[in-house]
Specification:
homodimer, Phosphoribosyl-aminoimidazole Synthetase, Chain A, domain 2, 5-stranded mixed beta sheet, 9 helices
């Protein structure tokens, strides 16, 4: 198709292959700098002899209120987590709101209250903000951007480019809880579901992990595009192969059932309070123990390892003993999931 | 009206009195910290022995392409300017996009290219970003958040709270160009208008000003709500009276004519490349000369002074010699102006 006719599709926002292409083909060349080109969850820059991390995310989740949270704590936790995935201690957030005319004030109050609690829980401060109101129909209810700044402790050097053959891959808990919660809320299934979003700040967990283990190479929170896409990004960034084991990946029974019913693969569904960690061989036991000592890492487990073969590719040993390639998410499963 | 029934109106996003109330009544109490409560264009925080400024703004301008610029350079310049108004040297930006499904790729390319040029012109780098795509009708075309980080030079201490009686008030050039450009573009007037938006980075101008004059107390770019609202904010923040002189405020003839035709007061209309500066008595001549030496400050002039009487109030000596109170903008003149 000619450039002139091409249009942005929902796939471009999926967090999967087409998103990745949009970023590498359009964004990175447009802004041509090494910090952006690293494609980590945040950018790292020096100030004096300190290093800061800087990250941004806009939240467009629909519905804005859902079991386990709302767009407010999702936005605070999401940016806190992006900073934590750079190994940074999150410090300050901004909040930029686009609100549709007619939006109920009490809903805004509720969102602000939740943001405030989430910021307190994560130990960060919202220090600057902006509010735009657009006429009815020009936006759907409310969109919320949070950007954040964190301080990277001395000696910490974490990047999606640092995975090495032999690394063990750890996952902090069960997958797909957030996406399936949003999905069931939208689908109005007609039966009771006890599931809730896993939205949570991961910065305390990361602090505990960094204290326990100096050999952490990569941290990544598998949000849009899920664990499958996050691992593919890392395989590409580090030019390594990745092997995971299906039977080791924790998925709640209820999530698995709903995924089968609705036709989704939990490996590609968004998480909002989980992380992947890559650690050198021999470090995984220490790290696992540290993760399990933290409330949000209780169910942590080793799900795979980095291999030398087939750089840029993710393989999964299936439950029945076969092996299949786990590609990046192609197409969009769930618009407005976060 | 009961809280339960109150709804967000366009007035809440006007930048005027209702916006101010939303911020002071809801945002500041929700996030309860001293940095946010200062209500400057950005927040200032320390890192080691340095001070950084942090600011955020979401751009929802309609139309997205207009004479003099587009949403891309508007977003880069806007956040660069908010940082410069803290006295900071802007360094890094984030870009968070919400794009409507079906948006033409070539328009996105054009916006990204403009952002890139604007960043180069201002000497800043876009180092992190995020893209969300929402289904058709859930957002109008594209919204663009930029957040930014700047470094405050040693000895610089600028805030809307630092205006003092005797200060002279300088304005860097003609007012209302941006808003009238957007307005005429929307109104499809049927005759040719040569006007264009004044969108421009102000950080070089601020650098020149800070070099020429150590006695700058306040800097503010009069965007949404215009010069009238910006001065009211400063009068409130510093608890001083402000007196301005109508005949000293530069307004292009074409702008004046269109304002009369369309029923707008240029004093309340948005600027995207102008600044107000407050400097101690005796400093204004130096400062004025410095401003006029810079391309974006060529038409700089002294428009008024800070007085002891009536703290929190802005007065204007009118062209015909009378005096009237210049209130904050009440209600919304122009939604989606920036």
């Amino acid at each position: 198709m000619k450039m002139a006719d091409r249009r942005i599709s929902l796939d471009h926002g999926s967090g999967g292959k087409i998103s990745h292409k949009l970023i590498t083909d359009m964004m990175v060349p447009a802004f041509h700098n090494e910090m952006l080109a690293r494609l980590d969850d945040g950018a790292v820059f020096p100030v004096g002899n300190r290093r800061l991390a800087f990250s941004t995310d806009t939240y467009v989740v629909d519905p804005i209120f859902f079991p386990g949270g709302n767009i407010g704590d999702l936005a605070v936790n999401g940016t806190v987590n992006d900073l934590a995935m750079c190994g940074a201690k999150p410090l300050y957030l901004s909040a930029g709101m686009v609100i549709e005319e007619g939006f109920p004030e009490r809903d805004l109050e509720r969102i602000l209250r939740t943001m405030s609690h989430a910021a307190d829980s994560a130990g960060v401060q919202v220090i600057t903000g902006d509010t735009k109101v657009v006429p009815r129909g020009a936006a759907d209810k409310i969109f919320l951007n949070t950007s954040g700044i964190g301080l990277i402790p001395e000696g910490v050097d974490i990047s999606g480019r640092h995975a090495r053959p032999g690394d063990k891959i750890l996952l902090s808990g069960s997958i797909a809880d957030h996406a399936v919660t949003i999905l069931t809320k939208r689908a109005e299934l007609g039966f009771e579901v006890s599931l809730k979003s896993d939205t949570a700040p991961l910065n305390r967990l990361v602090e505990v992990m960094l204290k326990a283990c100096r050999g952490i190479h990569v941290l990544r929170d598998p949000t849009r595009g899920g664990v499958g896409t996050a691992l593919n990004e890392i395989a590409l960034q580090s030019r390594v192969g990745i092997k995971i084991h299906e039977d080791r990946i924790p998925v709640k029974n209820e999530v698995l059932g709903l995924c089968e019913l609705l036709g989704f693969d939990p490996l590609y569904l968004a998480n909002e309070g989980k992380l992947l960690a890559f650690a050198g061989p021999g470090d995984e036991e220490n790290l696992l123990a540290a993760m399990r000592s933290d409330p949000v890492g209780r169910e942590a487990c080793v799900i795979g390892e980095v291999v030398e073969d087939h750089p840029g590719t993710v393989f999964m040993e299936t439950r029945i003993g076969g092996e299949r390639i786990v590609d990046m998410l192609t197409g969009e499963q769930l618009p407005r999931i976060c």
